[in-house]
Amino acid sequence: MNIVACVKQVPDTEALIKVKPDGSGIDEGGIKWVMNPYDEYGVEEALRLKEAKGGEVTIVSVGPARAMETIRTALAMGAEKGVHVSDPLLDNTDAYTTAAALAAVIKGLNPDIIFCGQRAIDDDSGQVGSILAAILGIPQVTIVTKLEMADGKIKAIKPIEGAQLVIESTLPCVITTQKGLNEPRYASLPGIMKAKKKPVDVKNAAALGIATEPKAKVAKMTPPPDRAPGKIIAGDDPAAKAAELVRLLREEAKVI
Amino acid sequence: MSGPRKRREKEKEQRKKVILNAARKLFFKKESHPVTVSKIAKKAQLSKGAIYLYFTSKEEICAQILLNDIEKLHKEVSGMIDSNKNATQLLRDFSYTYIGFFLGDTELFRILMNFMLNNNNLNFSDDTNRRVIQEMNRAISVTEGILRYGAERGEFHLREADYSAETVEMMLNEAEKLAVEAILPTYDVGDKDHAQLKDGKAYAPKCFHEPYRKFCEGGWLMATKSPEIGGQGMPLLLWSACMELFNSANFAFMMYPGLGLGAAALIDNYGTEEQKNKYMFKMLEGKWGGTMCLTEPGAGSDVGALRTSAKRRPDGLFDIIGTKSFISSGDHDLTENIIHPVLARIEGDPLGTGGISIFIVPKYRVKDDGSLGVANDVVTGNLEHKMGIHGNATATLNFGDNGKCIGELLGPERAGMKIMFLLMNEARLEVGMQGLGHATAALEHAIQYAKERIQSKPVWAMRDPNAPAVPIIQHPDVRRTLLWMKAHVEGMRAMNYWVSYCIDMEHAAKTPQERAKWEGFVELLTPVCKAYCSDKGFDVCSFAIDVYGGYGYIQEYPVEQYLRDCKIASLYEGTNGIQALDLVGRKLGMNKGQNAMNLFGEISATVAKAKTIDTLKSQAQRLEEAYNAMVGLTMQFADWGKGSSFLLPIMNARPYLMNLGDLVVGWQLMQGAVVAEEKLQAIYAKAGAEGSKAKQRALARENKDVAFYQGKILAASYFADTVLPTLAGRCTAIQLGNKAPIEMLEESFTI
Ligand SMILES: Cc1cc2nc3c(=O)[nH]c(=O)nc-3n(C[C@H](O)[C@H](O)[C@H](O)COP(=O)(O)OP(=O)(O)OC[C@H]3O[C@@H](n4cnc5c(N)ncnc54)[C@H](O)[C@@H]3O)c2cc1C
User: Fold this and answer.
1) Can you tell me the distance from the alpha carbon of B163 to that of A225, in angstroms, rounded to the nearest whole number?
2) Which of B292, B664, B688 has the alpha carbon at shortest distance from B491?
3) What domain range is B630 assigned to?
4) Quick one: which of A60, A68, A10 has its CA closest to B169?
5) N or C end: fewer C-beta atoms under 10 angstroms in chain B?
6) Does the beta-carbon distance from B218 to A192 stay under 8 Å?
7) Do B177 and B295 fall into the same domain?
8) Structural domain ending residue among the three candidates B392, B414, B436
9) Does B157 fall in a domain?
10) Using CA atoms in the order B721, B722, B728, B730, what is the torsion angle rounded to 10 degrees?
């Protein structure tokens, strides 16, 4: 089997995010970078499929030079090879261009199945997997928490409000992964040592023949407003204080 | 010189030679220990009086016996010991100086003691005399093993693997993930569930199973092993950094894989190919566990007093009979088998450490095809109820109660202590790392708590009734406590890592001289790492409780557990008292004192460098003063060692060790500060913040690196200005030579 897992490098969930003063994006100084947690489920599922059915896992990532660390981490977990689309023209690009770059790489790989995280925790756009499937012209099942494969088909479970859908699809297809699908493994020490020797192709936009002009642009980024300080109701009479509280809840906070 | 006088002198020399020869012969005849003046007299066919006659003072007798022909003496000793190179080197090194003789060389020390007591120089009552001898014999028997055979370091850390910065970072990341996500959640659960014995079966806390599996699957057991046997050849320096993370997460847990690893290393170094195939690989995969079985109820510090015996069987194996107590990870259900390296005496072998052999004793016998056979009559008598490390099973193991416990010899007969010391030296460094691990975790918790706990107005707003209470980290006393903790933790970290680095360098050394230098640092600092980091680590945990206030004492908060778990580090692997004896009695004098001189040399180089940096100048001065004080005290010890005050260095060994620890920590912190200062200046220059304190502080608020480096410098300067100045005073105090603890009658100890 030919399996592809797409990964994105994102700031650690515990990193303190600061918006650049000009609002053009986040300040990357001092940030620890990790693999997008949803992509970890994809890598793990890809590795399990390979271990069950044989084949090869290829990791594909679009991102600046530092994204190589994330590809190596996936290789250390057990994937065979990687493709790194690295081009300053693609830094912080939009979902469509990212998906187009991924598609250009993946077409040449002839995969049986492609994994993407259901969204990336940095911009939360949640579109790349779907656009990728559309460009490749293959089916997609999104937000998957359970996956089985038999007779050249997959059966996936996708939770929806109050129920779950059981979806069957032919191959090849795109699966976007959700928490609960599996428990991603840690990279082992031998894995880390071996990862250094595994091949990673580095390609730029020109080599892939894709347009680099994004279709959507971030106009401005602003930090969420500071929370207003709490209000303490002064006074000695508990009944009056309670009345004042009700008034404030009704008139100012408008919650009752 | 007149003719007759000359002849008399010649005769005297002749007699001396006869006496020395007699003493030496006795010395090598095992059964005649201790060597006494009476025995020497008998052997030399001279009267006791004649012996004193030819040596004007007791010192001279000793000096003559010890120094007269030391080369030859050591050659003979070397011949006695199997052709182990390292051991003979160590033997040759250890006793070139008096201090080494008096405190480290047990047999010679015994001769000395007997002379002293026979001469009644100490003016003790007979009863006390006897007790002094007893105590001394206990003290010595521990160092005896080291003395006789030396500690041999294995060759299994190959360093050929390629460790790029990227690899190092990835490994640290994975270690942190494993520590935080898999191991840390078991910390309090494992404490409450603790190891248990039910219907004769021992269980580790349930929650340990999953992280144990992950630890093994991740290949961590094989990290430092040679690639030839499937390991990663990880440098020890990096391994120590990973271990600090694991230990901080849960040391009681780490003792299970840790002891398996240690026991496997013994087989790796001394086992036959057959034994390696039979046991070692399964242990390195984590399928089977391991222990180290030295202690018995009557043999703790004094390993030589052990009673466990080994009876030869016709098939070349041995029947093992005896009881071992306090065996860590001694019985549990994390692995399907447990391999015990057991110290025991083969029937008929001499008493003392020299007669001890080491045996591989599995919990379940192993068949030729590698599968498990029947139980090997190793029965767990009980698991101890302890102050801390509840998650680890501390077992009493009864070997051969039913006469069915079979062990196989590991290495040559009577080499048990030498072999076990390979494990013990590593384990001592690991126990130092345990102290550091608890301290690190306690510090991190304390800092976090101090930032969150709101209590009391700041002192400058005391009079203002409307002033809000602030996070306690704003109170000067809390800040001082936290900085004391931080300085010690970072200093201990640097010391432990540096010793690991020395081991790496020892293996990478190209010349024997270079190798000896690095090895010397390791030898010298192993007892310091063990004892200093366990004691100071405990202090750090205690201060963490102070920072928490009453909540620190409550079990819902994590810091009281660190304190409980940390205490054991001062006790096992040789109590800290024993560590201090090892340092003062043996390590200081090793290599003619060259190891200590090399260390002092390194420190003075850092002083010189720090003195050229304006911001560190005055702290460098403090370090230099502390350094001078310690050199002075060390010389004093050597001096005392030569005379009738030779008990003073023994008695003061532990404060000496703690002083040396402070000096090394102060030095390591200063070294860090020098680097931090260079890095900071470069950052300041780039940001245009040179010379402006306000700009530099502002920079630290937004740039983590700046905050980190500033923290390093402040911790170093705080330590230099508050701890180091007390060192000179503490050295002076020891040099006053108060002998009250020795002179006081035991009757007077009771109140
Ligand atoms: C939780 C736990 C786990 C342990 N794990 C293991 C293990 O895995 N394997 C193992 O073999 N052992 C283990 N031990 C045993 C441990 O190593 C011993 O308890 C320790 O060596 C001290 O021996 P002891 O308890 O008999 O104390 P003692 O030897 O009776 O010492 C009591 C005191 O006298 C002092 N003292 C003794 N002799 C001298 C001397 N010559 N000079 C100066 N002071 C002296 C000691 O420093 C100490 O202060 C463990 C112990 C505990 C509590």
Assistant:
1) 45
2) B664
3) 421-742
4) A68
5) C
6) no
7) yes
8) B414
9) no
10) -170
- What is the nearest CA distance from B208 to chain A, expressed in angstroms? 17
CATH number at residue B643: 1.20.140.10
Tell whether B160 is covered by a domain. Answer: no
Residues 75-114 of chain A with CB under 8 A from chain B are 76
**pLDDT tens for residues B213-246?**
999 999 999 999 888 888 888 888 889 999 999 9
- The verdict on B115 and B174 lying in the same domain is no
Largest separation between any pair of C-alpha atoms in chain A: 76
Of B171, B705, B717, B157, which is closest to residue A196 (Cα–Cα)? B171
Lowest-confidence range among A237-246, B286-295, B448-457?
A237-246
Closest residue to atom 4 of ligand 1, CA basis:
B326
Signed CA dihedral, B456, B460, B466, B470: sign only: negative
Quick one: B222 and B142 in the same domain?
A: no
Ligand 1 pocket (Cβ < 6 Å) reads B 138-139, 142, 291-295, 300-301, 326-328, 386, 394, 568, 571-572, 574-575, 577-578, 581
- The number of the ligand 1 atom at minimal distance from the alpha carbon of B386 is 1
Total domains present in chain B: 3
Residues of A in contact with B174 (CB under 8 A): 76, 186-189, 192
**Which of the 8 DSSP states describes residue B230?**
T
More confident residue, A137 or B19: A137
Distance between CA B42 and CA B18 in Å, rounded?
A: 12
Listed residues B95, B121, B147: the one ending a domain: B147
Spatial CA neighbour of B340 closest among B410, B272, B426? B410
State in words which class domain A2-208 has.
alpha beta
- Position with higher pLDDT, B341 vs A28: B341
pLDDT band, very low/low/confident/very high, at B329 (cuts 50, 70, 90): very high
Are B358 and B277 found together in one domain? yes
Q: Give the tens place of pLDDT for each residue, A34-56.
A: 999 999 999 999 999 999 999 99
**CA A143 / ligand 1 centre spacing (Å):** 58
ipTM beyond cut 0.90: no
Spell out the residues 6+ positions from residue B446 whose beta carbon is closer than 8 angstroms to its own: B481, B482, B485, B543, B544, B547, B548, B559
Position B313 scores a pLDDT of 97
**Secondary structure (3-state) at B202:** strand
B751 lies in some domain: no
Least confident of B133-137, B214-218, B415-419: B133-137
Give the other-Cβ count within 10 Å of B686's Cβ.
Answer: 9
The DSSP call for residue B389 is -
**pLDDT exceeds 90 at position B488:** yes
**B578 alpha carbon – ligand 1 mean position (Å):** 9
Chain-centroid distance of CA B506 in Å reads 18
**Contact predicate B303/B341, CB 8 Å:** no
Cα maximum dimension of chain B:
102
Residue B321 and residue B175 share a domain: yes
At residue B63, does pLDDT exceed 50? no
Three-state DSSP at B240 gives helix
Inter-chain contact A196–B167, Cβ cutoff 8 Å?
A: yes
Catalytic residue from among B506, B519, B573, B677: B573
**Which residue's CA is the closest to the ligand 1 atom numbered 29?**
B301
Residue of chain B nearest A18, judged by CA positions: B702
At B35, is the pLDDT very low, low, confident or very high (cuts 50, 70, 90)?
Answer: low
CATH 3.40.50.620, chain A: domain bounds: 2-208
Ligand 1 atom nearest to B136, measured from its CA: 41
Domain with residue B257: its CATH number is 2.40.110.20
As a three-state string, the secondary structure of A197-229 is CCCEEEECHHHHCCCCCCCCCCCCCCCCCCCCC
Cis bond before residue A172 (omega within 30° of 0): yes
B273 belongs to the catalytic site: no
